[in-house]
Write a structure and sequence with these properties.
The chain has about 475 residues and is of the alpha/beta class. It is about 35% helix and about 25% strand. The strands form two sheets. Strands 1, 2, 3, 4, 5, 6, 7, 8, 9, 10, 11 and 12 form a twelve-stranded mixed sheet that branches. Strands 15-14-13-16-17 form a five-stranded parallel sheet. Strand 3, helix 2 and strand 4 form a beta-alpha-beta unit. The longest helix is centred in the N-terminal third of the chain and has 15 residues.
Length: about 475
């Protein structure tokens, strides 16, 4: 992994505020701890190293103690930091003052590159990148608009000629220097600034403007991160909108760096762009759950991905799990029902359904839906219990609950390869059959074992 860009130092002062200053209406903070962390492109490099990749960082710093601190922090995690030190210039430093994990104030210490030297320094950094390219599996450009990457277009061209993917995290709204990159990853504000200054009204408009930008810049993919709304990936002819991971947002500091690091490392390891973006989306969910910048480790990312595979899922988590499975070429089978009293007939039918594909989704009616369909005395078991029991079956991969009377809205977004129903239905009478067939899927009706039904069991209990 070759990372280049604007190198910074993040400094944190933390303590407790017990009173208001008598001099001004501001809290008095007793600072009891200082924490130093790599920032900017250096934070990206830290994230890359946490994933287990070998990393070389190239950038410009001042010839000062802050640069010493960045170099020492990166050396401690195995990053080869090849920093070009510029005399009489200061390393960009961001000081965050926090109390009880809440940020009170941020102070930035920075200066533009020395006048008259900027172009020469930018060109020298590019030459260093070109020298390092032959041993790189990916080039990641982390642009914080501090000046280091002013000559980066030459590096992008050279990397693409050499077959090295280029991932760019841009800040400057002039994206022209990134023409021909593999992936351009602006956040929504950066995307808006680069496409007219007016926020898109909806996802359709974002897709249209994104496609136009992608084609104009001849980039393979455009990834727009949309904060709490998730992220949108635009490639040739396709658009993929991923919802944000279901996690409370504690601090967004460094989340963009996390996305860039995981995205680039995944591409370097041979992932498709779609799978790389899905992993980056999971990693972003981890990052925003921590105070300050955090390097997401391979172990924590693996645990989070495995959590997506849990049996009982929300609708958003189900869609993400299905998308990951489909990206791996797996065939998705879908069935639905109340599954109120699970019996041998259900088990046989679900095992037969699972044999029609690689993953079986069991969608169950919510409690209110069951009452509307079956009567006021149903269900016998609430949705949480029914979902847990169904998920325990070996044949069922994922279970989700829907509140509508039919699964049609869910089928519209899951788009299964096979829709399965048990009983004496004709295939054309299965609810949702037209939706599935319209998207190229199949509908199958499987038999139920005679004498085994929830209604029959309930009636025998009443009689006995």
């Amino acid at each position: 992994m070759l990372v280049c860009g604007d190198v910074m130092l993040d400094r944190y002062w933390s303590g407790t505020a017990h009173r208001i200053s008598p001099e001004a209406p501001v809290p008095v903070l007793g600072v009891d701890h200082e924490d130093l962390r790599p920032g900017g492109a250096a934070n990206v490099a830290l994230g890359v190293a946490a994933l287990g990749a070998r990393c070389t960082l190239l950038g410009l710093t001042g010839d000062d103690r802050e640069a010493d601190a960045v170099a020492a922090l990166l050396d401690a995690v195995g990053v080869e930091a090849r920093l070009r030190r510029v005399p009489d210039w200061r390393t960009t430093t961001k000081l965050r003052v926090t109390s009880r994990a809440q940020q009170l104030l941020r102070l930035d210490f920075e200066a533009p590159l020395p006048a008259g030297e900027a172009r020469a320094l930018q060109s020298a950094l590019t030459e260093t990148v070109l020298e390092a390219l032959p041993r790189a599996d990916v080039l990641l450009c982390s642009d914080y608009a501090k000046g280091a990457l002013g000559d980066a277009s030459r590096a992008v061209d050279a990397a693409r000629r050499a077959g090295v993917p280029v991932v760019v995290d841009p800040k400057d709204p002039d994206f022209e220097r990134w023409r021909g990159a593999t992936v351009l990853k602006p956040n929504l504000a950066e995307f808006v600034a680069a496409t007219g200054g007016v926020a898109p009204a909806d996802l359709d408009e974002l897709h249209a403007r994104g496609r136009a930008l992608r084609e104009r810049l001849a980039v393979d993919a455009l990834l727009v991160t949309r904060g709490g709304e998730g992220m949108s990936l635009l490639t040739a002819g396709t658009a993929l909108d991923l919802p944000t991971r279901n996690r409370d947002v504690f601090d967004v500091t460094g989340a963009g760096d996390t996305v860039a690091a995981v995205l680039a490392a995944s591409l370097a390891a041979g992932a498709t762009i779609t799978d790389a973006v899905r992993l980056a989306n999971v990693a972003a969910g981890i990052a925003v759950g921590h105070a300050g910048t955090v390097a997401v480790s391979a172990a924590s990312l693996r645990s989070a991905v495995e959590a997506v595979s849990a049996s009982v899922l929300s609708r958003d988590a189900l869609l993400e799990a299905v998308a990951v499975a489909r990206g791996a070429g797996e065939r998705i089978v879908f069935t639905n029902g109340c599954f109120d009293l699970l019996h041998a007939g259900h088990v046989a039918y679900l095992e037969e359904a699972r044999a029609l594909g690689d993953r079986l989704v069991g969608a169950i009616n919510g409690d209110a839906s069951v009452r509307r369909l079956k009567g006021a005395d149903r269900p016998f078991n609430d949705a949480a219990d029914r979902a847990r029991v169904l998920a325990a079956l070996r044949a069922v991969d994922w279970v989700t609950v829907f509140d509508e009377d039919t699964p049609e809205a869910l089928l519209e977004v899951v788009v299964p390869d096979v829709l399965v129903k048990g009983g004496d239905y004709a295939p054309q009478d299965v609810v949702g059959a037209a939706i599935v067939r319209a998207r190229g899927g199949q509908v199958a009706v499987l038999g139920l074992q005679p004498g085994r039904s929830t209604t029959g069991i309930a009636e025998r209990v009443r009689r006995g």
